[in-house]
Amino acid sequence: MTYRVTLIPGDGTGPELVAATRRVLDATGVDFAWEVQDAGLDAMEREGTPLPDRVLESIRRNGVALKGPITTPVGSGFRSVNVALRQSLDLYANVRPARSMPGVRSYYRDVDLVIVRENSEDLYAGIEHYVIPDVAAESIKIITRPATERIARFAFDYARRNSRRKVTAVHKANIMKFTDGLFLQVCGEVAKEYPDIAFEDRIVDNMCMQLVQKPELYDVLLCPNLYGDIISDLASGLVGGLGVAPGANIGDGLAVFEPVHGSAPKYAGQNKVNPTATILSGALMLRYLGEIAAAEGLEAAVRAVIAEGKNVTYDLKPQADDPTAVGTQEMADAIIVALRRL
Ligand code: NAD
C-alpha cells in the first residue's frame, strides 16, 4: 500500500530537517508518495500569504501531513501560520510525548509522559482587545463542554490504544471556577466511561512542581490549551530539550505531524540542527497510519544512535562546540544504517 502524504518543508531549518526525515521514512520500507507543499516565508513572497489554500486542500485530500517548522512573519496580519493551520483544519488535539532516552543529557531517567493539549479554544481563541489603548487590555478565555468532551475522549482513547494506565487532568479550577471548573467537571464525567483507565486531577502550579520532583508518577496529562503549551515545553526539558521532542496535531480524519521546536532561523542552511524531533514526529505518523512495526523499528534506531553518542548533532554532545558533532544529514544517515542493522 502507498500512503499519500502532504510534505511541508517549512522555513528556517525546516527544509533540511524535513529532507532528512523523508530519507529516513523512505528507508523504513513503508511506501510513501510525497506531495510537497510550500508554506511560510517563501510562499508569502510568491503568493502573498504564508498559508495558501492549496496547502490546506492537499492536507484535506491526503488526510496526513508531515510539516517542518514555520517562522511566523512579523506584521503580515497572520498571528501564526501554525495556529492558523490547526484552526483551519480543526486539529483539536495536540499530542506531545516526552520520553527519556539513554544518551541524552538530563537530570531524569524514567520520564514517559504524553501531553494531550486541547488545541482550539481557551485563551488561544484570540479574542482580545484594548479596553483603554495602552492602559488596559482584555483577553477572553473560552472553555466549552463540546470541545472539552472531545479532547477528554481523545486522551482516554489514546491511553487505551497505547496501553497507558492513567490520565491526569490539569487545571486551575480553584481560581477559575467557571472555565477551568467546567473543564475539570467534564473530564471527570468522561473518565467514568473509561473504568479501565485511572483518573486524577492536579492544579497546574502543583503539577509543574510535581513534574520536576517526580515525573515518573505521571502518564497522560490532559490539558486545556495554555497549560498544555507550557507543560509540554517543561516536559521536553525533562527529557533533554527541544531537539528531541516530537508532536502531532490531530482532528477528525486529519493529522499533521511536526516537531515541537520552531524554525531556529539562526542555524538555517548550516546542516547543524538535530533531526530527531522531526524524525520522531515521522514515527508518530507511522503509528497513526497503523505501521506499528515500522514505527517501533524507527524509534529503536533513533535510540540506538543517540545511546551510542557518536553520530549525533552538537546539542547531544557534552559540549556544544564538540568537534566530533555531526550534521543533520549525517545523523539521519546513521539512523538509516541503524534501521538496517536492527
Ligand atoms: P526555536 O525552537 O526555533 O529555537 C530556539 C532555540 O532552540 C534555537 O536557537 C536552538 O538553540 C534550539 N533548537 C531548536 N530546534 C533545535 C534542533 N532541532 N536542534 C538543536 N537545537 C534546536 O524557537 P524560536 O527561536 O522561539 O522560534 C523561531 C521561529 O519559529 C519563530 O518565528 C516562531 O514563531 C517559530 N515557531 C514555529 C513553530 C512551528 O512551526 N510549529 C513552533 C515554535 C516556534
Please indicate the count of domains: 2
Span from first to last CA?
23 Å
Portion in strands:
15-25%
Low-confidence stretches: none
What is the fourth-level CATH superfamily of the largest domain?
Isopropylmalate Dehydrogenase
Mean pLDDT: 95
Global structural class: alpha/beta
CATH architecture designation of the largest domain: 3-Layer(aba) Sandwich
What count of helical segments does DSSP give?
11
Radius of gyration: 20 Å
Strand ordering within the main sheet: 2-1-3-12-11-4-5-10-8-9
Q: What is the overall shape?
A: globular
Order of helices and strands: EHEHHEHEEEEHEHEHEHEEHHH
Biggest sheet descriptor: 10 strands, mixed
**Can you count the beta strands?**
12
Give the ligands present: nicotinamide-adenine-dinucleotide
Helix proportion range: 40-55%
The CATH topology label of the largest domain is Isopropylmalate Dehydrogenase
CATH class of the largest domain: Alpha Beta
What does it look like?
With 342 residues, the protein is an alpha/beta fold. The chain folds into 2 domains: 1-92 and 245-342, Isopropylmalate Dehydrogenase; 107-238, Isopropylmalate Dehydrogenase (3-Layer(aba) Sandwich), CATH 3.40.718.10. The protein is 40% helix and 19% strand. A 10-stranded mixed sheet has the order 2-1-3-12-11-4-5-10-8-9, sandwiched between helices. Strands 6-7 form a two-stranded antiparallel ribbon. A hairpin with a 3-residue loop joins strand 6 and strand 7 (136-139). Helix 1 (14-27) packs parallel to helix 11 (328-341), helix 7 packs parallel to helix 8 and helix 9 runs antiparallel to helix 10. The two termini are 23 Å apart. The mean pLDDT is 95. Nicotinamide-adenine-dinucleotide (NAD) binds at residues 69-72, 82, 242-243, 258, 261-266, 273-274, 277, 315.
